[in-house]
Each structure stands twice: as structure tokens, then as C-alpha cells.
Amino acid sequence: MDSSKSGFVGSQVELRCIFINSNPPVKISQVTWQKLLNGTKQNVAIANPALGVSVLSPFKERVGFKQAAVRHRPPSLEDTTIVFSNLQLSDEAAYICEYTTFPAGNRENMVNLTVGQKRKMTVATCVSANGKPPSVIKWDTRLKGEATYQETRNQNGTVTVRSNYVVIPSRETHKQKLTCIVMYRSERITDSVVLNVQCKKPTIVKV
Prior knowledge:
Number of helices: 0
CATH superfamily of the largest domain: Immunoglobulins
Strand order of the largest sheet: 1-9-8-3-4-5
Order of helices and strands: EEEEEEEEEEEEEEE
């Protein structure tokens, strides 16, 4: 299992659990996924060779086993990775994947799931002041974001143009280059910035 996973509200995330069987292989009697929060365990999903697969409330509509082989008859239970869809803030917790085997007994491991909210932030501002006619501001970047524009008419008849570039900060935005291009009459002025995005590592809870 991964020691930790993270995702944003509304997104999809996989919690991986793969059983490396021995030689000769042991018999897998059941696999149980549990949510561990504040010392309380709550069953999420169960795969049983005789009873089939069940996902319990309130996870029933949003959680499923990734591998179709888990639902086959007979099932293959070596890979019981589960997939969360439409992630919610309340999903943030530790999740235990427990294998009940014979004759080796129970084996389990845990993954810590962190859920964040997608919040757009202004990462760069470009201003062209006191132009007549007003300047045109454009952005050149590989970042997936959007630009906002605001024009302010000054008392002397000139115009100040202000543009903000807005993105959802993530690891992918770190060290990305963002260039502001100001075009005024026949002039073309550019200025660039490299983003420094600090990502906090999730706390791993061990019991």
C-alpha cells in the first residue's frame, strides 16, 4: 500500500492494496477496507469469495473495487484497490486494508488520505499604468489558469490596465514560468516570474 494519498474535493482517488501471496499460496477468506477516524473503525467495503462484494453506507454510491476480477466467480483478491469518486472533505482519514487468510491469519496495512479544497489563487499581477490608448496585456505560460482584466480611467484621460493570473495551486504549478506581455502601440514589453508553490506533506497516522 501507499503510506499516504491525497486528492481534491470532487475528484477521484485510488487507495491501493495488493496482496503478495506466498508459495505455496495461502487461502484468502475475506478482504475488508475500514475507515479509521479518531480511534473509531467503520467498514467501507468487503470482498468475500462466498458472499461477493459489498460496499457499505455512506460509501455505497462513491466507492468501488478497481479490478473487475474481484467481482468474478471465483474472485481474484490479490489486488483489492478501491476507487473513491466525488471525494468529500469527510473522507479524510486513515484507511485500513485487512486480509483474512488461512492458515496465516490476518494481515493489514494502512494508508492516510488527505483531502484538499480546490481554491483559485492569484499567483501573478501585471499592471500597465497611465497609457493612452490603454495597453493590451496577455499572458504566456503552460499553466492551466485564467486571467482577469480591469481598466481604470484616470483623471488625466489615461488608462491603467491591471491583469491577475489565477490558478489552483498544486505540485504541478511549482517552478512553472509565467510571462506577462504588455503591448502598447508598437512596443512589446515582457516580464517573467517562476512560481514557488509550497506543498505541505500530509501527516501520517500510525496505530
